[in-house]
Amino acid sequence: MDRTLTFGEYLDRWLASKVRLKKSTLRSYATHVRLYLKPGLGHVRMPDLRDHHFEVLYAAMRRIGRMGEGERPSLMLSRLLSARSDKPAAQRPLSPARMRRVHATVMSALNAAVKKGESPSTLPSMSSSPPDAHRAPWRGPTPGSRNGGATAGVRAR
Predict the structure, then answer these.
(1) Cα–Cα distance between 122 and 31 in angstroms, integer?
(2) Distance of alpha carbon 76 from alpha carbon 41, whole angstroms
(3) N- or C-end of the chain: fewer Cβ atoms within 10 A?
(4) Count of alpha carbons within 13 Å of 66, Cβ hemisphere only?
(5) pLDDT digits over 133-153, tens only?
């Protein structure tokens, strides 16, 4: 294992090796790498990657488009925002689905790194679950519902 290899350098290699993917999948992976993974964690050496790096990244991703007036962005959020365009659409909050897809890209890249011996066998983010961006908590069936009635299993809003 090359101890000087950064996550960003590895992601470039990983993307280049993805020759049997559909164009749309490769385009999604490349977008995730360009907008989130390399700006956020590209500078971290592969052997140094830990769960907390991804937790900070995902927390910053959840803040995109949700900053209060006068609020100063964290260093991580500043790096993510600098990678995005100035178009209004680029400043919208990320959906829970986008957050899960980015996490899936991370998992695919890190699993490949372990198989190729480019990362320690103790993968970061394996113990963390996919991030949910402001998903309402599950309330379960309501007391008055019977047999899965219309009010059973409603998400809190």
Answers:
(1) 26
(2) 9
(3) C
(4) 13
(5) 455 455 566 666 555 555 555
What are the residues facing 6 on neighbouring strands?
A: 45
Structure tokens at 21: 């993917």
Q: Are 37 and 43 in contact (CB under 8 A)?
A: no
**pTM for the full predicted model:** 0.76
State the helix-helix crossing angle for 7-17 and 23-32, rounded to 10 degrees: 170
C-alpha closest to that of 94 among 31, 155, 157 = 31
R_g of the chain, CA atoms, integer Å: 18
Task: Give me the count of residues in the chain.
Answer: 157
Helix (H, G, I), strand (E, B) or coil at 5: coil
